[in-house]
Amino acid sequence: MALLLHLTGIDESGWARGFKEALPGYRVLTRAEQYDPAEIEYVFAWRPAPNAFEGMSNLKAILSLGAGVDALMAHPALPDVPVVRFVDDELTHCMSDYVISQATMHQRLFTRYAADQKAKRWRQYYPPASHEITVGIMGLGVLGTDAALKLKAIGFSVTGWSRTAKQIEGVKLFAGNDELDDFLAATDILVCLLPLTEETRGILNMKTFKKLRRDGLTGGPVLINAARGGHQKETDIVAALKDGILAAASLDVFEVEPLPVTSPLWELDNCFITPHIAAISNERSGVNYFSRMILEHRDGKPLRNVVDRDRGY
Ligand code: NDP
Ligand code: OXD
Known about the structure:
Elements: E1 2-7, H1 13-22, E2 27-30, E3 40-46, E4 61-64, H2 70-73, E5 83-84, H3 89-107, H4 110-118, E6 134-138, H5 142-153, E7 157-162, E8 172-175, H6 180-185, E9 189-192, H7 206-210, E10 222-225, H8 234-243, E11 248-251, E12 271-273, H9 283-298
Parallel strand pairs: 1-2, 1-3, 3-4, 4-5, 6-7, 6-9, 7-8, 9-10, 10-11, 11-12
Helix pairs in contact: 1-9, 3-5
The protein binds NADPH dihydro-nicotinamide-adenine-dinucleotide phosphate and oxalic acid (OXD).
């Protein structure tokens, strides 16, 4: 029986080496090797091809390289086996680093200073202190909760919005569609850390931006999206950044990746673009996490962090 790596667009060699070392005596395969699909028990996957799981009559679980499983959930022939997502301290730490860096940059109005530097213009701004600025986090799962606690610890006022009600000390929380408008009305810096599902697709649109608080941050509210490009309507973001509905945005993810050179987002001084690197799955901790999961599961222990197929995350 075997583990098959099926990572689209990612160099599999380091992962394969790592899994072979961590699982001595167990077959670890890449698609370049000869194998019988019936011997595959686990597939380690990222954006698997439509025929990825064909003939895998003994498949026990699909292991997702990413924390986000939207591409797997949309797979046209996803077998009826558990899907385990990547939940990892290192990844969480990196995502919070990204969110904090962008929130702080916007609170201190660095978009304006960058534009002034280009124009060789000496202008002083007096932004409100971080405790006067509210960072509203959409999605209070593994990543959103860590970011919320850390932003709070460095002085921001923090709120959060999730599907079901939660409690996090010192963070005002909103839940469900009924409370979305109240959440937005109190938010200066909107951070998206939602999973991409049919409910959350396109949620970052003009209607949403117009509901954000306007009198907190100098120049208007800001968007930070480090979740999925499918959450955002890029034509709305461009329009909002041009006419001041949004003062600035930090985008790590896009409707189409890589972001096409024709996208008007590239041209906007108040849009900070990163190429889907907010939190890359780490090879060492990924191999550790999934090889331990395989060994435990083969010993009869339950899988952890299994995706709820009905919720889609
Ligand atoms: P989790 O599954 O732990 O958390 C998801 C959160 O979103 C939960 O709080 C959930 O609510 C909330 N949520 C889901 N649906 C809705 C809805 N319809 N309305 C309101 N809230 C909703 O996910 P993670 O924190 O681990 O990851 C979040 C996303 O980050 C991933 O799905 C992935 O797309 C993205 N990501 C991006 C990376 C990058 O490099 N850019 C790296 C890693 C992840 P509830 O708690 O009530 O269930
Ligand atoms: C993920 C990602 O989902 O890197 O982990 O986007």
